[in-house]
């Protein structure tokens, strides 16, 4: 085999390996990507089924219920237009309270209840995740437009 052919073979093998490495990295990135959705989007069915995503908004007043096992908590998240029931097993953040901002990460169950694997609460009096604030503003504008 000539040196020129060996060089082309080496370049070809390198390109195949580079392509395979790129495909693996992109696949890992896609499987770890978690999108944010609002309760209105969840209610409209615009969320991925069988995939993890985040839903955020305000914790509905009077919706926090602790079950007898001491670990399971049920609550509802709203964007002022729609409400999503959430169930979470584990310790909630100290700042998690009714009428305060929260983001839950998990999957939507077949029964329409969001099964959270992680719950995040706002970290001070003035902070709300930008996505949650935009979603609440949009839902409020939509609710105002509909009621007029």
TrEMBL record:
Report the membrane topology from the UniProt record: Single-pass type II membrane protein
Please give the Pfam families that the UniProt record associates with this protein. CcmE
The reply on keyword Mitochondrion is: no
Extracellular-facing ranges: 29-148
Q: Which Gene3D superfamilies match?
A: Nucleic acid-binding proteins
Q: Where in the cell is it found?
A: Cell membrane; Membrane
InterPro entries recorded: CcmE, CcmE-like_sf, NA-bd_OB-fold
Keyword terms, alphabetized: Cell membrane, Cytochrome c-type biogenesis, Heme, Iron, Membrane, Metal-binding, Signal-anchor, Transmembrane, Transmembrane helix
User: Where is the major localization of this protein?
Assistant: membrane
Please indicate the ranges of residues that lie on the Cytoplasmic side: 1-7
Residues binding heme are 123, 127
Transmembrane helix is among the record's keywords: yes
Cited HAMAP family? CcmE
Q: Which family does it belong to?
A: Belongs to the CcmE/CycJ family.
Q: What is this protein's function?
A: Heme chaperone required for the biogenesis of c-type cytochromes. Transiently binds heme delivered by CcmC and transfers the heme to apo-cytochromes in a process facilitated by CcmF and CcmH.
Put simply, this protein is called: Cytochrome c-type biogenesis protein CcmE
Q: Which organism is it from?
A: Uliginosibacterium paludis
């Amino acid at each position: 085999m000539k040196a020129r052919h060996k060089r082309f073979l080496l370049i070809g093998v390198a390109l195949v390996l580079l392509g395979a490495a790129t495909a693996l990295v992109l696949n890992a990135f896609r499987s770890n990507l978690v999108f944010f959705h609002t309760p209105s989007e969840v209610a409209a069915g615009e969320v991925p089924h069988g995939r993890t995503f985040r839903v955020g908004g305000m914790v509905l007043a009077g919706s926090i219920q602790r079950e007898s096992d001491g670990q399971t908590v049920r609550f509802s998240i709203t964007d002022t237009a729609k409400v999503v029931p959430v169930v979470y097993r584990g310790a909630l953040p100290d700042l998690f309270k009714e009428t305060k901002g929260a983001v839950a990460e998990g999957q939507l169950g077949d029964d329409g209840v969001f099964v959270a694997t992680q719950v995040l609460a706002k970290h001070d009096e003035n902070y709300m995740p930008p996505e949650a604030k935009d979603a609440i503003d949009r839902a409020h504008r939509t609710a105002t437009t509909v009621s007029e």
